[in-house]
């Protein structure tokens, strides 16, 4: 088997990186849909999770939504979008699917983080005369931060993976390099595409870990 | 949705589709169940020794947990594709990929379950003359079972969903039906296969919940305590 050598040759051939179906363009598509979807998912999930966590309501919903998210196959949801008129709407079906699968980890983790804030700390803050808003910003949010960040990392990993599967229904993104390789029985291209996707996923995870270390409100305490 | 016309009009719900393609649906579901069951069974068989290793030799704990977490980060399509040169287009490829995914949650929950066994329980067992093997089998494992089963349920539900991606190599169970239906925009087939997939995940979850209740009759009395320990 000379797959590794041919894969290396594919990756180092400039022709595979340029143009409409080239790796740079696919990477751009991948990052664009992932970024938009993650931002939308955060905008939807985090306020809801923080509000539910602050008031202590809707716990069953917030926890069960992530179990539902696990049971629904990404591929099935994307395929369902592709047999509706949405298929003609460019990146929209992919972005909707990405948001749907990024919301559960964000919502559940941020909610659990809020609820796991020590009740005695909350009581003490109230006893010191903090208002609901102050309590939220200065006590609950910093203490819920680690769990919320864990949720953000799982959501980001989920989004990158889902954007890859979008290629199976003919949508753009790095996965297209893999599916194109499958269609032409070009194993080195399949492996090269897979390496790019895996590399991107690991890079995103590592970047978020680094960001977490830099901005964590609890870092001085450690 | 009435009558055979629904195949012509391409309705979402089509009784005629269910009738005329029932064999195809049964075969795809059977393949889905086989791939999922094989993956989870092998995953459990691999995760258990890894968890014992991580617990017994603290030096190995960080690498084992780190490696399984890295594997979990790799998107499924890439995972299956990376295994292509090793396995070719086969069910073994899909099963291997799914086993690698299930390891993350199974190893982590097994380690957490074993570590949550109270030290005084272990002391008491040792004082009664239990050796390491008997202690593991008769004391630690039963107490870790709720955490292990919780991990098994999450891994199984995820595996049912991920199996659909195996259709990239033609071994995706119900995912194959979804992929076949895409070029012709065959709505009834996409929807039926998707719904069956979710039902399969729910059924597997309930089945494992039943097994857990049978295996751990004592937790029905002390559910609250066990739940607290699992959550750690």
Automatic annotation (TrEMBL), chain A:
It is found in: Cell membrane; Membrane. The chain crosses the membrane at residues 31-53, 60-83, 89-112, 155-178, 190-211. Keywords: Membrane, Transmembrane, Transmembrane helix, Transport. Pfam families: BPD_transp_1 (PF00528). Its main location: membrane. The keyword Transcription does not apply. The keyword Membrane applies. GO terms for biological process: glycine betaine transport; transmembrane transport. Residues 27-208 form the ABC transmembrane type-1 domain. It is a multi-pass membrane protein. GO terms for cellular component: plasma membrane. Belongs to the binding-protein-dependent transport system permease family. This is ABC transporter permease. It comes from Streptomyces pacificus.
